[in-house]
Amino acid sequence: MTDERGRPYYVQNIPVPETPRPRQNPAAWKKTDVVGKRLPRVDAYERLSGSAVYPSDTSLPDMLYGAILRCPHANAKVLSVDARDAERMPGVRAVIMQNTPGANVEWSYGRGYKTKLFDPHCRHEGEEVAAVAAETPYQAWDAAKAIKVKYETLPFLSDEQEALEPGAPAVHESGNRSGDVQVYQRGNIERGFADADVVLEQNYRTESELHTPMELHGCVAKWDGNRLTVWESTQGVYAVQARIAEVLSLPMANVRVIGHYMGGGFGSKLQAGKYTIIAALLAKMTARPVKLFLTREETYLCVGNRPPTNMKLKAGVKKDGTLTALELTVLGSGGAYPAGGASGVDWVVRDLYTCPNVRTSLTDVYTNAGPARACRAPGHPQGAWALEQMMDALAESIHMDPVELRLKNIPTYSQAREGNPPYTTTGLRECLEEGAKVFGWEESRKRTADANVADRLGHIRRGVGMASAMWAAGGGGPPSTVIVKLFSDGSVNLNMGASDIGTGTKTVMAMVVSEELGVPLDKIQIEHADTGTTQFATPSGGSKTVPTESPAVRAAVLEVKKQLFELASKDLKADATDLDVKGDEVIMKSDPSKKIKIGNLSDFRRRGVILGVGYRGPNPDKKVVNPFAAQFCEVEVNTRTGEVKLLRFVATNDSGRVMNRLTYDNQVFGGITWGIGLAMTEARLLDKTQTGKMVNRNWHDYKIPTALDMPMKIESHPVDLDDTEANTTGAKGLGEPVTIPTAAAIANAVYNAIKIRITSTPINPMTLSRLISRSRKEG
Amino acid sequence: MGKKKDERDRSRQGVTRRGFLQLMGASAVASTAARGTAAETPAEVLEPAEMTRIALRINGRRHRVVVEPRWSLLFVLREKLGLTGTKVGCERGECGACTVLVDGQPRYACLTLAVEAEGKEITTLEGLMKGEELGPVQQAFLEHDAFQCGYCTPGQIMAVEGLLRHNPDPSADEIRKGVSGNLCRCGTYEHIFKAARRAVELRNTKGGA
Amino acid sequence: MTMPNFSYVRPKSLKEALQQLSSKGARIHAGGTDLLGCLHDDVFQVKKVVSLSHLDELRGVRQTKDGGLRIGALTPLVEVVNSEPIKEHYPALAQAASEVASPQLRNQGTLGGNICQKPRCWYYRGEFHCLRKGGSKCFAENGENHYHCIFGSGHVCYIVHPSDTAPALMAHEASVRIAGPKGTKLVPLEAFYVLPSSNVEKETTLEPNEILTEILLPPPPKSGLRSGYRKVRARNSWDFALAGVAFALQFKADRIEKARVVLSGAAPIPWRSKPVEDALVAKRLNAGTVERASEAVVKNAEPLEHNGYKIPLFRGLLEEELTRIATTFGT
Questions:
Q1: d(CA A89, CA A390)
Q2: Predicted confidence band at B9 (pLDDT cuts at 50, 70, 90)?
Q3: Given CB atoms, is B58 within the 8 Å cutoff of chain A?
Q4: Residue to test with chain A: of B158, B189, B192, most A Cβ within 10 A
Q5: How far is the alpha carbon of C284 from chain B, nearest alpha carbon, in Å?
Q6: Looking at the predicted structure, is the pLDDT value of residue A14 above 80?
Q7: Is ipTM > 0.90 here?
Q8: Is the same domain home to B16 and B105?
Q9: Proportion of chain A above pLDDT 70, given as a percent
Q10: Average pLDDT, stretch A337-355?
Q11: How far, in Å, are A713, A750, B81 from residue A455 at the CA level?
């Protein structure tokens, strides 16, 4: 019907029950019954029983298996591809390469840099050249190996430190610079150093890290006519959907991406891979589903890495501990294509400590190696490796306790953002003080120093170290849409787009629903991570999922409650504000004898369900929501062998409200494990002088921490500051701040033990035995 | 690599005539009788391109599968028998995601040829269930949140199960060593240690595995 | 999934196994852990896999008539770790076996397989057609030689032998029995290994048609034996040695009467360090001896560009182990 102005009803702003309306921020919970408790995960049964079907577990009738042939050279042109033998091999159903009709699609990297899916110029070991689909993966690999490729190998560049030298091989025709040098400055850096009582300068380096999540990268692709369904191990189904639609020129509605469970990503699965497109093309060509999961060896080459990072840090401090100047120069490599090789490294230098004069410069260069991808707190562990060791050195130079030096320089606002917006909360002080107390920082320093001096443990030296951190994001934000559906018996369906990458997203969101509606967790059904059936969410990563999704979930539930109480107030003849919902009943707070079952509400039957849509509203204006952290550790160094034993770790985090203490602590311990990897075991190595190929291309030689590399004791002590401004649940991100200070804390502890500063990762018997022996000779 | 046409046709058919004879029970390699005795019919050579029927005992059930000699137990479990509880991480024995019990001992299914698994009792994650209920080790993992993404978890559980079958009351050190062949990239080790401790208690109260 | 095709046979007797091995391209499957890894990496080609898993006579730890020990080559490492006689009389072997790889691999891998395993050099295992695989170049010599050898390369090939149990066995003066088409022979373990300068494509004298059937240990001394194995590595599980030492020191009163010191992570073969043994024999294990012996371990070492850390590391390792023995032995 039209109104008097002739406008149709759907533009007249007539509210229908399911129409989302702008929400007013509900106040943060004061006391909670569910949120914050130690509760087991809602999908624990599925994961522990083996009934959870991960994307790599997916099996469809008539399914084929895919294998990708990759360029074995660091830099080469593909001259010819001959698959005639391969095509005839047992079980082979399709072979595709660059000139296969339909396969010559575009693939873009950062800054819009475009290549082809099977690009004739392979700029890193592992670039895709051809692909096979066969009845078994064994047969697919037999055939892939039988494809004859002629390459013209070209000079290659492996060492980013040589990229800008004259005569360095050019990774791209335009040269080896990837983008412009990024410079940041505030204040007057020269005056800052002039004002200092002590000025120190040091070079630092962190090696390239690989994500290596437990589940391999890959997908299963299936067509139904011109509709494509993809089951992919991904952190973001919508991101994958968008990319597929773009590359294959499909309407998004014809692309459905499903990613219910997934075996880890850490930033390497925030986007579709070439394997996604290749699987789709093979499936189309064979008219059968195709399962294409990479081998572990392939994942080291082509699904991202943390860039190798070279840093020079110059710092000035006054005798009273005031920082006067910080100057950071960074050289990193995002690999063979634009991929942020130095991004984020300088953030902690810019913003963690109060400093009026700061200058940073980030140079990203190309190398003939796999392109980088965001890797758990991009840039930050590297920047912290430098900054936190420098803070320790500064503290030593002015005879100040390292914790005290940090406490002297804590900002309450973001210095690096325009307008200096304040933090909604900053718990850095509390993290440091609480951590120091729980750890026994002062007593431990004295105890270990005394023991070392007295040679009480023989050739074993003990040391303690600490580091603090912040993460530049972690506040979350729009967009996100969540739908909550209330059934007549009070049980609930929660529909959201976010992936649960292992952080416990599903559980936390269910707890939010349970908190507001009183419905037990086992009566909440969760649909998620399916572009065909669930609402929109951005990829789960960046420590933004809980702060983004939990307010949206809460908003959806409050919308449900609002409608529920509107219905119930009629039946109970009560004011909506006097009502509460518990399980399958609505009760009058002032007279609990007056209640009604949800299913009996007179208007409920007309609807069938009550639907609430929640949107993630914007973050508070002119404020910054960031998490903070501090970690303390004690180590034992064997001065004969250079072996380092991690005795204990204490981690404190300000990530806002603890949503689930069990999964929270698990994240903390996980972040520390990652940091141990950066500090002590992980390094991607290239055959720099001969072939440019990766030499440690297996999970023995690319070393990630095992159970026996863990500290003997670790503790997590959250600092819960009751942030009422950040968002309506008060939560900040956690997954990344937990790994930012770890490596530096270990390095500082090792220094404390043996007075040798390790400025390059990894710290292990290879590096230490040499340094210790050298210092013995000199000492 | 080229094959004669008739060989190719035969391999496309799947089970060959020779394989068919084996199905009929003629001195099948699947039989584990007569070990080590001399002067017998020599063992059958399984040809690469032919499929051979073998019998595998998994979680107490007998499965007949047709395999190539090179197929791993892991591949057969996941892609042929639909037992996807056991996960694939590296296929080189460097991560532990594929840990199963072979005659009660933790081993990597990726480095075990399916043909080698004949005659052995294989236990996978699914085999630890008590009907639809979680077994004690699984229950302990639930209570202590001993998983994050969950992908290494089946292997961890099997390693703990294998440890506890041989050593029902391990020390903290023995627990760590027991799962030292299982990587966890999410870094859940600390909770896994606690869960293993709890599993000891649950196994005792429930009267053992 | 990158596993090439092969035929497979599981012989029921040693004789049958030897017959099967006589065909070209046949290889032994003992535990299978290294075989499958090598096939996965295309290190060599195999036409026929000959599985020894039915040969029970090749398994087990038994005492020999002379009071020594006989360990079947197919004995899983976990049995070596848990064997009471080995723990008591040949502790270096028990310790070495307990630190191999991971629990699952110790359940599956065999002692014979551990001794005969292929090198872990990442060029050898990678897509590099190196000397050892019949190619014309050693990529480690001027390449990423972080984990390569400081002794015994002959300037030909720079692998380190990856076995932990072999040095321990050598310290305990083990021999191996090898069965071939012409019968069996007993070979001291020291003579079993091949230096690159003799033959760059073999690590042991084992021919493709031979089977290592058992490892024999001589009767242990009645008293005064101190033996052990220690390796230093980057991670505390799975990792091969950055530097390792197996030692068997026979004390008479407070003097070392006989010393066998064998290094892992040092050379293409388990490396007996004669300089260390010479520095120890007839001496008391005091601070001076420890220092001299620790210096001696790196005598004539030839470090490469990236493995110079092995010099201070081996020194420190010897110093620590010898000091530990001296302290516990009460010298």
A1: 60
A2: very low
A3: no
A4: B189
A5: 35
A6: no
A7: yes
A8: yes
A9: 97
A10: 97
A11: 24, 16, 61
Q: What is the dihedral of CA B169, B173, B174, B179, to 10 degrees?
A: 120
Quickly count: other Cβ atoms within 10 Å of residue A44's Cβ: 23
- Burial of residue A493 (CB within 10 Å: 0-12, 13-18, 19+) is middle
Report how many domains make up chain B: 2
> Per the CB < 8 Å rule, is B159 touching C11?
no
Nearest in space to A501 (alpha carbons), one of A734, A266, A295, A661: A266
pTM: 0.94
Query: pLDDT by residue (tens digit) across B165-186?
Result: 999 999 999 999 999 999 999 9
Chains that touch B (3 or more CB pairs under 8 A): A, C
The alpha carbon of residue A651 is apart from the nearest alpha carbon of chain C, in Å, by: 23
Instruction: Inspect the interface and report whether the beta carbons of C316 and A641 lie closer than 8 Å.
Output: yes
Tokens representing C130?
Answer: 């190196």
Is the predicted pLDDT of residue C117 greater than 90, yes or no? yes
Q: A656, A627 in Cβ contact below 8 A?
A: yes
- Do residues B112 and B10 both lie within one domain? yes
A253-257, A400-404, A601-605, B94-98: least confidently modelled range: A601-605
Q: H/E element holding A218? A: strand A218-224
Q: What is the dihedral of CA B69, B74, B78, B81, to 10 degrees?
A: 50
- Spatial strand order in the sheet of A198-206: A182-186, A358-366, A323-335, A309-317, A198-206
Question: Residue with structure tokens 């080229």?
Answer: B2
Nearest chain B residue to C236 by CA distance is: B180
- Is there a contact between C78 and B40 if contact means CB atoms under 8 Å apart? no
Q: Which of A384, A455, A452 is nearest to A629 (CA)?
A: A384
Listed residues B99, B127, B155: the one ending a domain: B127
Residue of B nearest to A53 (CA): B84
CB contact under 8 A, C104 and B99: yes
Minimal C-alpha gap between A667 and chain B (Å):
8
The domain of B54 spans 2-127
pLDDT above 70 for B37: no
DSSP string for A91-154: TEEEEEETTSTT---EEE-GGG-EEETT-SEE-STT-EEEEEEESSHHHHHHHHHH-EEEEEE-
Contacts of C49 in chain B (CB under 8 A): 69, 113
CA-based nearest distance A642→chain C, Å:
8
Minimal CA separation from C62 to chain A, in Å: 33
* A&B contacts, CB < 8 Å: 183
Query: How many residue pairs from chains A and C have C-beta atoms closer than 8 A?
Result: 115
AA identity, residue A312: K
Q: A742-754 and A441-453 are packed helices; what angle lies between their axes, rounded to 10 degrees?
A: 40
User: What residue has token string 């520390």?
Assistant: A672
Question: Using CB atoms, which chains have 3+ pairs under 8 A with C?
Answer: A, B
Which residues on B lie below 8 Å from C9 (Cβ)?
A: 43-46
Domain C-terminal end among B74, B101, B127: B127
Q: Which two tokens stand for residue B205?
A: 């109260």
Identify whether residues B118 and B154 lie together within a single domain.
no
Kindly report the CATH number assigned to the domain that includes residue B172.
1.10.150.120
B151 shares a domain with B134: yes
**DSSP 3-state of A370:** coil
Domains of chain A with bracketed CATH: 9-31+476-615 (3.30.365.10), 55-154+212-302 (3.30.365.10), 399-474+623-778 (3.30.365.10)
Q: Distance, in angstroms, between B135 CA and closest chain A CA?
A: 9
Are B150 and A501 inside 8 Å of each other by CB? no
pLDDT at B36: 40
**Local structure of A174: helix, strand or coil:** coil
Kindly list the residues from chain A whose CB atom is less than 8 angstroms away from the CB atom of residue C313.
Answer: 641-642, 765-766, 769
Residue C33, burial from CB neighbour count under 10 angstroms (0-12, 13-18, 19+): buried
